[in-house]
Design a protein that fits this description.
Largest sheet of chain B: 8 strands, mixed
Structural class of chain A: mainly alpha
Number of domains of chain A: 1
Order of helices and strands of chain B: HHEEEHEHEHEHHEHEH
Low-confidence stretches of chain B: 1-19
Shape of chain A: rod-shaped
Distance between the termini of chain A: 33 Å
Distance between the termini of chain B: 114 Å
Oligomer: heterodimer
Order of helices and strands of chain A: H
Mean pLDDT of chain A: 92
CATH topology of the largest domain in chain B: Rossmann fold
CATH architecture of the largest domain in chain B: 3-Layer(aba) Sandwich
Helix content of chain A: over 70%
Number of helices of chain A: 1
Structural class of chain B: alpha/beta
Largest interface: A-B, 28 and 34 residues
Chain lengths: 44, 357
């Protein structure tokens, strides 16, 4: 695997993890205010 | 090695330079290391930027409406009909309504749907429901968004009861105005969100007899429907301690605009006092069909109270649909599947109980 390819994979992993964390963070905030579970129902 | 050579080498060493040609390698290595460090730093910065951008995209993605939502909302535009804004139904500044009149004004009769805004009885405005009201108008209904006097510092005497009376007083004015504009209203439905749902239920269950036209059904989400401390665990009133009961008496008393004392809980006197603002206590065999949705983890109002509503409607044989968003709180925010179901049911209720002529 070339160095460049490795980097691209790293970027993708970081982007996916951050995207999921972003959704979880908003869900957490709304749950704190309104009530709700962290998992189940809609995607995250 | 000659003295001259030795001297030039030591001078070079003192200046920290390569003493001879072959010694330029460490300097280059250093330069390379520096470049590598810079590259690493740049890459790290890029990681952080990607993380932040993707994190924000994740947050933003939660705000995107599901694809089905477009079937149950509409953007207002003049092709849908006429929008009369801020028409008065009383003398107080808040006593205003928006009237959505469908483009087709040739029918003999129209159904009216009133929709009452959320906001915990203390905030909110009819303008927040434009998409819902526009959708109803698009379907061929005369729709009305009604404001009511909110409980604020300027209006400390406003409460659920006074607000429900305002809605009761607004409906005949709206029906008359629609007639004046060429839309003959013959039947209606009431709906709302949260506080608005509470007021819609009170209108449909308590005041339907006073309506100038027949009330066909009521719909809404997360509206407070009864006020028993044991149901209101979201505020800790279910603890049963003196402090909890005093808190419950204080809050429920404010909501009803009455003096409630802790010793009244569990007595018929309490039900008598709260009947004016409790949808549950106004259910009987003549209650209209009802559609409602609640979040099982509601932190703002009592989910347990909605179970009582379901039981009472079942006991009285009233057609109703009780939807529960099992992972959501007051915003029904984690269960778009249930919200879709609720929207589909609403369209069914409109077609069944308030069909467009």
């Amino acid at each position: 695997m070339t160095e460049k390819r490795k980097q691209v994979i790293k970027f993708i992993i970081i982007a996916v993890v951050a995207f999921v964390l972003g959704r979880l963070a908003l869900r957490f905030g709304l749950n704190l205010l309104l009530g709700g579970t962290m998992f189940g129902g809609d995607f995250l | 090695m000659s003295d001259m050579n030795y001297n030039s080498m030591s001078a070079a060493a003192a200046r920290n330079e390569a003493p001879y040609e072959g010694a330029s390698a460490p300097a280059e290595e250093k330069k390379q290391k520096k470049t590598e460090k810079k590259k690493k730093r740049r890459r790290r910065m890029l990681y952080v930027l990607i993380f932040v951008a993707a994190f924000l995209a994740g947050v933003a993605s939660k705000r995107i409406s599901p694809s089905w939502a477009k079937d149950y909302t509409a953007e207002w535009d003049d092709s849908l009909g006429t929008l009369e804004k801020d028409l008065p139904y009383g003398d107080k500044p808040a006593q205003k309504y928006d009237l959505y009149l469908p483009a087709d004004d040739t029918k003999d009769s129209y159904g009216l749907v009133i929709y009452l805004h959320p906001g915990g009885f203390t905030s909110g405005d009819k303008s927040g429901d434009v998409n819902m009201l526009s959708w109803l108008c698009k379907k061929g209904y005369v729709a009305a968004g009604i404001n009511y006097t909110l409980f604020t510092e300027e209006n400390p005497d406003a409460n659920i009861y006074t607000q429900s009376v305002e809605i009761r007083d607004a409906v005949p004015v709206i029906v008359d105005k629609a007639k004046e504009l060429g839309y003959n209203i013959t039947e209606m439905a009431a709906g709302g969100g949260s506080a608005g749902h509470c007021l819609a239920m009170l209108y449909a269950y308590r005041d339907a007899d006073t309506s100038p036209v027949s009330v066909k059904f009521v719909f809404g989400a997360v509206g407070p429907s009864s006020f028993y401390p044991e149901d209101w665990g979201c505020y800790g009133f279910d603890q049963g301690t003196d402090k909890a009961l005093e808190g419950a008496a204080g809050l429920f008393g404010k909501m009803a605009g009455k003096e409630i004392t802790p010793d009244m809980f569990g007595t018929p006197a309490y039900d008598d006092a709260m009947k004016d603002i409790s949808a549950l206590l106004n259910i009987d065999d003549d209650t209209v069909p009802s559609l409602f949705c609640y979040g099982a983890y509601d932190k703002v109002q009592s989910f347990a109270a909605s179970k009582r509503l379901d039981v009472a409607l079942t006991e009285h044989g009233i057609p109703h649909d009780y939807l529960v968003a099992p992972h959501s709180g007051h915003g029904l925010q984690n269960d778009s599947g249930v919200m879709h179901e609720y929207s589909k049911k609403l369209a069914e209720y409109l077609d069944t109980y308030l069909p467009v002529q």
